[in-house]
Specification:
Blueprint: H1 2-10, E1 11-19, E2 35-39, H2 45-57, E3 63-69, H3 73-86, E4 91-107, E5 115-129, E6 140-141, H4 161-171, H5 173-184
Parallel strand pairs: 2-3
Antiparallel strand pairs: 1-4, 3-5, 4-5, 4-6
Helix pairs in contact: 2-3, 4-5
Amino acid sequence: MAAKSALFENYEKGESTVKEKDPKEDFSQLPEKTIVVKVKRGTKVKNIMGFVEKSLKEEENRHIIFSGCGDAIEKAISCVEFTKATIKDLHQITKLSVLRVVEFWDPIKPDLDRLQVTREIPTISILLCKDPLDTNELGYQAPSQPEKTPKVQKPHKRKKPDQNRKNNTDRNPALADKIVKQETD
């Protein structure tokens, strides 16, 4: 921690460059109409899934790539799993790579040198396709078998307060007496 505070005491952040790449570069022989969904940390899964379902129901859309970086990797994987649960027989290829961020720190004191810091942030790109893909490709997953695919469960609805009140009377006889007394008055 002391080294980090020394950095902030003696340096201020200068320019930074991000060497981004197109997720399509990870996969070979993709059609022009491939849909790319860039999932970010603040992305709402519900919004993505509506777009994805609508897009993949159109016959001409056969390929879709989900990409996520850093904190968004888990969310990208969740979107892929939701898509595979709702749209059957999708072939998958997963690729991992890094996003390079180069930061320059300028010295506050004249006797110090300029620092260059390179951070590598993990990224994931997942291709889903309605058509069969090369099974020898690294990261390939065949479509799931129907009996092995977990069903997407809808969230449980909460009971209304009135229902909870009646159920609490079984556990608390004093509360039951008060409720009966209020109802008879």
